[in-house]
Design a protein that fits this description.
- The protein is mainly beta.
- Residues 1-21 and 265-270 have low confidence and may be disordered.
- It contains four helices and 43 strands.
- Strands 23, 24, 25, 26, 29, 30 and 31 form a seven-stranded antiparallel beta sheet that branches.
C-alpha cells in the first residue's frame, strides 16, 4: 500500500540557515539606526506584528524631550505616536548603553513607515529605521494536520504549529507509546537517522522513552543555543530499532518569531487558593471568589480526553446533590483543539431537545415558553499538560437570569459530571458523576488538592501466555498481520527481545511458537506491506530464517553471509491490527485482543508464501521481518510428517512383497 505523507508527519523539519528574509535568533531583521545624533545606535529585529527587539541600543540621554516614536508619514515627524519604553511607560527617555530590550507597538507594524528616537521639544530626529511597505512580520507557522496514511504507531495530530525558533506545538497529538526507545529527534539533512540527537522532553522519562499520547497538546522545545533553523528535520525516532516513526519538512525561508524566554515562564502550580477533589485522580475544581468584582473564577482540572467534558455547578436541590434543576458550567477541549465553556441548565435527566430546551441544555437555547437565557460564563484559558486538561473560566456571583443560581458564600451542595460531547458539541450522558452528596464551601480562605497525576501509570506486569500454533499442511492457510507488540508482557516478555512496538500476529495470535513438520508444505497469506518507496516503517516482508533477530535487508554484507533464508521474503498489502489500549491494563492476551481493530484497504491482496519444509531444515528456525529486526518468534521443526511416514511404509511393504515373490 502506498503511504502518503500529509503536510507534516510526526515531526518538523528541514530548516535552512536563514537569509535576511527569514528568522534569526532575535527575530526578523528590520535595520540599523541611521542619521543618528546624541549617541543613538543599535539594531531592531521584529518579533511579531506588535513587538520589536532592540539589540545593542545606546542613547546618551541628553536630549531634552526624546521618546520612541512610530509614524506613517514618509519621514519621521511630530505627527507620529509614542511607543512605551521597556517598562511600558511613556516618560522621557533616559540614557542607554548597549542595551537589549523588547517594545510593544501601539498597532500592527505594517501601520507604520518608520521607527525613530524623536525629540518633541526640538522637533528633531535623533535616529530612525524605515519600515518597508511590503514588510511581513514573523508569525507562528501552521503546518496543518499530519500523519502517515496509514499511521505508524497511531501517530497523528490535527495541527502542528511552529511557535517560534525553538518551539513547536502539536495539537491533539496521538501516539501509542509502544516504541521501546522513541524520542523527539533532530539532525542534519532531510532524512532522520542515527546521527541526529534527542530533544529532551518531560514526557520521555529522562531519556528512557517517549510516553504515549491520547490527543494532547504537546510543545517541544529545543535545548540551549539550538534553533529550529539549525536542523534539517525533527522526528519521532526509535534509537534502539533505528526507525523513523515520522518526520516532516519545513520551508527554508521560515518567518516565525524568535524564542523569547519571558514568554515561556516555568510551569507553576495552580494559582487559585481553594480546591476540592471531586473524583480522585480524575477531577479537581479550583476556585477564587472576588467579592469586589462580583466574580467567581473556576479552574477545571481533569484527566479527560478530547471531546470529553467536565461539568460543575450548583445542585438542583438545597438539601443534597441532585442533577435535575442544576446550574452548571460545561468545559471541554474539542478534537480540533478548540476549548469551550458554556452555561447549562439541567432541566431533566435526558438528552437536550434543542427545540424546547428540555433535558441537559445550554442556557442560550429556548425553553418550552420560547424564552432563552444567556451564556454567563467567560472562557479565560485552556491547555493540556501531561494528559491533564486545565480550563479556567469565570462567572458572576449573582444570578443573571432565571436559569442561573447565585453563588452563596457558604457550604453549598454542588453537581458535577464527566462525559462525552455529541457531534453538536453538547453534552451526552455522563460516564462519571457523584456517588452521594457533595458540598463546596465557597467562603473558605484556603484549601488544597493533591497534585493530579497523569492518566497513565506503570504497574507490575507478567508476560502473557500465548498458545502454540500447530497448523495442518496446505491448503490450510496461516495469516500473518502486523500489530502492536504488547510491551513487556507481550513480545518482549514472550520472545525475550525488545521490539520496536509492533510484531507479527499469526492467525490472530501475538508471536506464537509455530510448530511444523519436515516435508510438509505450509501456506501463508502475508499482510505486511509491500511498498518500500515512501516509508519503510510500513514495509514488512515476511520471511523464514536461521537468524533469531531477522532484518536481513538491514545487515551488512558480512552479516548476510551468516544467515540462511528458508522461505520468503513476501510482502502483500498492509492490513494491520491497532489498539489504543495500554497493554499493561490486561493480564491476558485474550482480553487485550478484544481491543484490537483491523485496518485494511478495500479489496486487500495478501502476498502468498508457500513453504515446503526441507528435510535438512534445523530443529529451530524463525519467522521475522525482512526489513526490520525483532518482529517474530521461533518455529519448532520436527521429524517427517505422517504423510511421509505412510509413504515410506507403503514403499517398504511394496518392496517386501516383491522380494517374497522372487
Amino acid at each position: 500500500m502506498k503511504m502518503t505523507s500529509f503536510m507534516t508527519v510526526f515531526g518538523l523539519a528541514a530548516l535552512a540557515v536563514c537569509t535576511s528574509a527569514t528568522s534569526t535568533e532575535y527575530g526578523k531583521l528590520l535595520g540599523t539606526f541611521t542619521d543618528t545624533a546624541y549617541g543613538v545606535a543599535g539594531t531592531i529585529y521584529v518579533i511579531d506584528a506588535r513587538r520589536i527587539w532592540l539589540r545593542g541600543f545606546s542613547y546618551n540621554g541628553q536630549g531634552p524631550d526624546a521618546f520612541f516614536y512610530v509614524g506613517s508619514t514618509e519621514r519621521p515627524s511630530e505627527s507620529g505616536v509614542i511607543v512605551p519604553n521597556e517598562n511600558e511607560q511613556t516618560s522621557v527617555l533616559g540614557a542607554y548603553s548597549d542595551r537589549n530590550f523588547i517594545l510593544t507597538l501601539p498597532e500592527d507594524i505594517t501601520t507604520y513607515k518608520w521607527f525613530s528616537v524623536w525629540c518633541r521639544g526640538a522637533r528633531a530626529n535623533f535616529g530612525d529605521i524605515s519600515i518597508p511597505a511590503n514588510f511581513v512580520a514573523p508569525a507562528p507557522l501552521d503546518l496543518g494536520s499530519f500523519g502517515f496514511n496509514p499511521t505508524v504507531h497511531e501517530v497523528s495530530a490535527t495541527k502542528v504549529t511552529i511557535l517560534n525558533t525553538k518551539q513547536v506545538k502539536f495539537t491533539n497529538l496521538v501516539y501509542d507509546g509502544l516504541g521501546p526507545e522513541a524520542f523527539f529527534w533532530v539532525g542534519d539533512g532531510d532524512v532522520p537517522m542515527a546521527g541526529g540527537k534527542r530533544v529532551p522532553h518531560v514526557d520521555d522519562d529522562n531519556g528512557v522513552k517517549l510516553r504515549g499520547y491520547t490527543g494532547e497538546d504537546v510543545i517541544v522545545t529545543l535545548e540551549g543555543t539550538d534553533r529550529i533553523f539549525n536542523f534539517g528535520y525533527i522526528s519521532i525516532w526509535c534509537a534502539q530499532a533505528l526507525q523513523d516513526f515520522g518526520n516532516a519538512v519545513i520551508p527554508a525561508d521560515l518567518n516565525v518569531p524568535p524564542y523569547v524566554a519571558s514568554d515561556n515562564p516555568p510551569p507553576i502550580m495552580p494559582g487559585l487558593p481553594n480546591c476540592k477533589v471531586l473524583k480522585e485522580d480524575r477531577f479537581h475544581i479550583w476556585w477564587k471568589v472576588d467579592e469586589a468584582a462580583g466574580k467567581l473564577r473556576l479552574r477545571f482540572e481533569g484527566t479527560v480526553k478530547r471531546d470529553e467534558y467536565m461539568s460543575f455547578g450548583i445542585s438542583g436541590s438545597q438539601t443534597g446533590t441532585s442533577m435535575p434543576k442544576s446550574d452548571v458550567i460545561v468545559a471541554y477541549i474539542g478534537e480540533d483543539g478548540e476549548a469551550g465553556a458554556m452555561d447549562y441548565y439541567l432541566q431533566s435527566r435526558s438528552q437536550c431537545v434543542p427545540t424546547n430546551g428540555d433535558g441537559a441544555c445550554p442556557d442560550v437555547l429556548m425553553d418550552s415558553t420560547g424564552a432563552a437565557a444567556s451564556n454567563d460564563v467567560t472562557l479565560l484559558s485552556s491547555t493540556v499538560n501531561r494528559g491533564i486538561t486545565i480550563i479556567d473560566v469565570e462567572r458572576p456571583l449573582a444570578a443573571i437570569d432565571a436559569k442561573d443560581k447565585a453563588i452563596a458564600l457558604a457550604p453549598t451542595y454542588v453537581s458535577w459530571a464527566i462525559g462525552e460531547l455529541n457531534p453538536e458539541k453538547r453534552v451526552s450522558k455522563h460516564s462519571l458523576l457523584p456517588r452521594g452528596d457533595v458540598q463546596v464551601d465557597f467562603s473558605q480562605e484556603s484549601s488544597s488538592c493533591p497534585r493530579l497525576a497523569p492518566p497513565a501509570g506503570d504497574k507490575v506486569v507478567t508476560p502473557w501466555v500465548i498458545d502454540d500454533l500447530t497448523p495442518e499442511p496446505a491448503p490450510e492457510v496461516i495469516t500473518a498481520h502486523i500489530g502492536p507488540s504488547g510491551g513487556e508482557q507481550g513480545y518482549q516478555g514472550i520472545a525475550g527481545q525488545v521490539g520496536w512496538g509492533i510484531a507479527w500476529y499469526l492467525n490472530g495470535l501475538l508471536v506464537p511458537v509455530l510448530n511444523v513438520k519436515r516435508n510438509n508444505t505450509y501456506k501463508f497469506e502475508i499482510y505486511g506491506g509491500n511498498d518500500n518507496s515512501t516509508n519503510l516503517a510500513n514495509f514488512h516482508p515476511f520471511y523464514i530464517t536461521s537468524d533469531s533477530d531477522g532484518g536481513y535487508n538491514q545487515k551488512t554484507a558480512k552479516g548476510k553471509e551468516t544467515e540462511t533464508i528458508y522461505a520468503g521474503p513476501t510482502g502483500g498489502e498492509l492490513c494491520d491490527f491497532t489498539s489504543m489500549a495500554d497493554p499493561k491494563d490486561f493480564d491476558t492476551f485474550e482480553k487485550y485482543a478484544e481491543t484490537l481493530d483491523k485496518t485494511c484497504p478495500s479489496m486487500v491482496k495478501p502476498g502468498i508464501l508457500e513453504w515446503t519444509v526441507d528435510p535438512g531444515t534445523p530443529d529451530v528456525v524463525y519467522y521475522q521481518c525482512y526489513q526490520h529486526r525483532y518482529f517474530g518468534w521461533k518455529i519448532n521443526v520436527s521429524g517427517a510428517s505422517q504423510t511421509a511416514v505412510s509413504l515410506a511404509l507403503m514403499v517398504a511393504l511394496l518392496t517386501l512383497t516383491v522380494f517374497n515373490q522372487i
